[in-house]
Amino acid sequence: MKAFTKNFTVQCRDTESLLKTALKQQVNIPYACTKGGCGMCKVKITDGQFRLGLCSKRALTDEERAAGYVLACQTYPQSSTTIILA
């Protein structure tokens, strides 16, 4: 995973969410519920394959999904993934 505004790379297992990996690597992504309900951990994926778990439509709208936004707590990278911290 590469995350921008700062340019860095961290290793992420496909069974571990972006948020969990980010926190382990001391990457600051705001969060609250960790269950896909609040929307605080919203990031934009610009490259890569991922699996998205359950998310509240209030936390992540269909329009946001179409624009590449995901909730880091419910996103599991399946390949090298590039994100932009929202």
How would you portray this structure in words?
The protein is of the alpha+beta class and 86 residues long. The protein has one domain (2-85): Ubiquitin-like (UB roll) (Roll), CATH 3.10.20.30. It contains two helices and seven strands, in the order ββαββαβββ. It has helices spanning 18-24, 62-66, and strands spanning 2-4, 8-9, 42-47, 50-52, 69-71, 75-77, 82-85. The strands form two sheets. The protein has a five-stranded mixed sheet with strand order 2-1-7-3-5. The chain has a two-stranded antiparallel sheet with strand order 4-6. A hairpin with a 3-residue loop joins β1 and β2 (8-9). The mean pLDDT is 88.
Let me know the average pLDDT: 88
- What is the strand arrangement across the widest sheet? 2-1-7-3-5
Q: Approximately what portion of the residues adopt beta-strand conformation?
A: 25-35%
Q: Number of helical segments?
A: 2
| Shape-level CATH architecture | Roll
- How many E-type strands? 7
Element string (H = helix, E = strand): EEHEEHEEE
Radius of gyration (CA) equals 11 Å
